[in-house]
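Please go through the protein record below and see whether the fold suits the sequence. Record follows.
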Amino acid sequence: MSYELELAGTNATWVFEAEGIRIRFVGGRRANPLHRALGELVVPNEALSGVIVEPGKRRTDLVLRLRPGADAFGPVLAGRLPEAADPYRLSLPGKQPDLAQYHATQLRDRISLNPRALEPTDGFLVVLPPAPRSIKGLDGEVAFDGETLTFTWGWMAETVKEQLGPQRVPLENISVVEWSPPTALGGFFRITLSDGTGLSARKPDNPAMRGMPDKDPYALAYGLGDGSVADLLFAAELHTRIVAARQRAELLPAEPAAPVSETATIADRADDVVEAIRKLGGLHEAGLLTDEEFSQKKAELLDRL
């Protein structure tokens, strides 16, 4: 297809560039809050896994599908984002199925060039805007300083949270981050610890507290008017940091207590180091490692040869 074409919808404009799809969201007070906060997103070709057309009575939607792991939204949302807020959905005014099908075909041709389009990505491919350092809810506040997540409780917190006091959780102790948008029924920001510590609010032996963010010491509960799309960016950024920390740990495992087996050849070790440096370079290019961290980790790997 010819590049630099634009397809304008009621919620955004898709610009078809050589390297991917640039999504420019409609601004203004009537715009979806998440779209307004994002402003613009670039979805690289290698992040795409599919596209579907959804015809309706008053509009036709074109929806991009991303490869697993292409952005940090999917894991923290788990399908809880309202359709109107979907950043990868373009709504065309009126019935325009032919126009939508044409662009869907062109997009599928583009996706077909990637033999790994249906596989998970090696890292995040969609870059999100900067996230706030703290967020607030009905019963408290959560802050992240780059190493530790801290929950502090306000005067509306449930007794169980007040009794436990502030919760400080190192990044390496967090396994899952979840975010549910504020609604009339509530919403939440929540984490799960890697060792299961402190999850009494979600244990079967405590049904009175199970699944209730207002009683979970590792959850921030929302009430009407609480929370914002910035909280989603906060959750996504935290998820990104967790994944980066895991990848660093996998690339630099602890030194074995016993000597390396004699059957391991120098060539085998060299191949492993080269592969690890390649993955490390991917983290560096994605902005998940600073220049200093990349140089240090690379040197450590080379020392193992």
In short: The chain has three domains: 5-111, 134-232, 255-305.
